[in-house]
């Protein structure tokens, strides 16, 4: 999702029409349409959008800012990467509730699991295409012996 998509998404989230946004920013509605379809928006136009509830940080970066009211009312916390699952958020909450020793143990266990997972992947993966096959020991030693030419007669 790019800047323009997020701009359109924020307007939809707030339930605003393009005309309402145009009125707030004091531009023609066609200008708002252009902003939402790959035409650059001037930075000074973002300031009035803040006043009507746009998450300008999200529009610019793709990472939601933390809205204190939403955190209190709905338990929403935007301090996570986009695409993070509820399960991952719950794991983080549990981790944060642990003491220092328990956190250290949890990290150690995760490191062991990560090592086992990466080792298992390496075993299962076939060699990359074009990789040279290694010669068997008997062929390798035979290849290392110098060949002698039989003389003619």
From TrEMBL:
Coiled coil: none annotated. SUPFAM superfamilies: lambda repressor-like DNA-binding domains. InterPro entries: Cro/C1-type_HTH (IPR001387), Lambda_DNA-bd_dom_sf (IPR010982). This is Helix-turn-helix transcriptional regulator. CDD domains: HTH_XRE. Pfam families: HTH_3. It comes from Tahibacter harae. Residues 7-42 form the HTH cro/C1-type domain. Residues 120-153 are annotated as: Disordered.
């Amino acid at each position: 999702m790019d800047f323009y998509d997020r701009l359109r998404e924020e307007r939809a989230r707030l339930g605003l029409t393009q005309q309402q946004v145009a009125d707030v920013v004091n531009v023609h509605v066609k200008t708002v349409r252009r902003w939402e379809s790959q035409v650059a928006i001037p930075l000074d136009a973002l300031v009035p959008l803040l006043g009507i509830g746009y998450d300008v940080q999200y529009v610019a970066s793709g990472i939601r800012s933390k809205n204190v009211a939403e955190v209190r009312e709905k338990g929403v916390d935007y301090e996570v990467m986009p695409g993070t699952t509820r399960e991952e958020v719950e794991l983080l909450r549990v981790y944060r509730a642990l003491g220092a020793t328990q956190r250290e143990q949890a990290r150690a266990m995760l490191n062991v699991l990560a090592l086992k997972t990466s080792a298992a992947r390496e075993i299962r993966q076939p060699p990359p295409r074009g990789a040279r096959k290694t010669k068997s020991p008997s062929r390798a030693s035979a290849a290392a012996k110098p060949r002698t030419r039989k003389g003619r007669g």
